[in-house]
């Protein structure tokens, strides 16, 4: 519990405190509401999500201290630690649904890539 609460983020266009509705075009409604919630001390995790996390955990990020030192940079560099994932798992089959799909909200700029895409894929 913070003695002094942080100021709400500002809408870059209006310079007014951001409302959840400002984020609806890019984030699922549930994510937007939670992100800007400044009143609830705890936000309960739905049972469906808790159940999903029994079988799936996202890949942890690890800070690359050695690389930062070798580059002589003050930047913080992170990488995904894939050592804990099994070779048989594939992200498309083990990842939980993305929030915009889970909420039923679909955005034209978030279309999945078609199989005839010219971009290379990692298999």
Model description:
This protein is mainly alpha-helical. The chain has a two-stranded antiparallel ribbon with strand order 1-2. The protein is built from 6 helices and 2 strands, in the order αααβαβαα. The chain has helices spanning 20-23, 29-35, 47-53, 65-71, 91-94, 99-102, and strands at residues 61-63, 78-80. Helices cover 27% and strands 5% of the residues. The chain is extended, with a radius of gyration of 19 Å.
Keywords:
123 residues, mainly alpha, two-stranded antiparallel ribbon
Please outline what is shown here:
By secondary structure, this protein is mainly α. The chain has helices spanning 20-23, 29-35, 47-53, 65-71, 91-94, 99-102; strands at 61-63, 78-80.
Task: Set out the fold topology.
Blueprint (H helix, E strand, L loop, with lengths): L19 H4 L5 H7 L11 H7 L7 E3 L1 H7 L6 E3 L10 H4 L4 H4 L21
Antiparallel strand pairs: 1-2
The arrangement of helices and strands along the chain is: HHHEHEHH
Question: Counting H and I runs of at least 4 residues, what is the number of helices?
Answer: 6
What is the rounded distance between the termini?
Answer: 45 Å
Helix content: 25-40%
Query: Which structural class matches the secondary elements?
Result: mainly alpha
Which segments are poorly predicted (pLDDT under 50) over 5 or more consecutive residues? Answer: 106-115
**Strand numbers in spatial order across the main sheet:** 1-2
Rg, alpha carbons: 19 Å
Please summarize the sheet with the most strands.
2 strands, antiparallel
Please state the overall shape, judged from the principal axes of the Cα atoms. extended
Q: How would you state the average pLDDT, rounded?
A: 76
Question: In total, how many beta strands?
Answer: 2
Strand content: under 5%
């Amino acid at each position: 519990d913070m003695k002094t609460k942080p100021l709400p983020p500002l809408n870059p266009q209006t310079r007014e405190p951001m409302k959840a509705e400002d984020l609806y075009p890019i984030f699922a409604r549930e994510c937007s509401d939670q992100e800007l919630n400044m009143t609830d001390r705890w936000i309960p995790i739905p049972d469906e999500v808790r159940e999903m996390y029994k079988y799936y955990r996202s890949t942890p990020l690890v800070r690359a201290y050695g690389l930062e030192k070798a580059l002589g940079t003050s930047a913080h560099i992170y990488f995904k630690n894939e050592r804990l994932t099994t070779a048989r798992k594939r992200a498309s089959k083990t990842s939980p649904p993305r929030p915009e799909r889970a909420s039923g909200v679909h955005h034209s700029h978030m279309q999945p890539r078609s199989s005839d895409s010219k971009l290379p894929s990692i298999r």
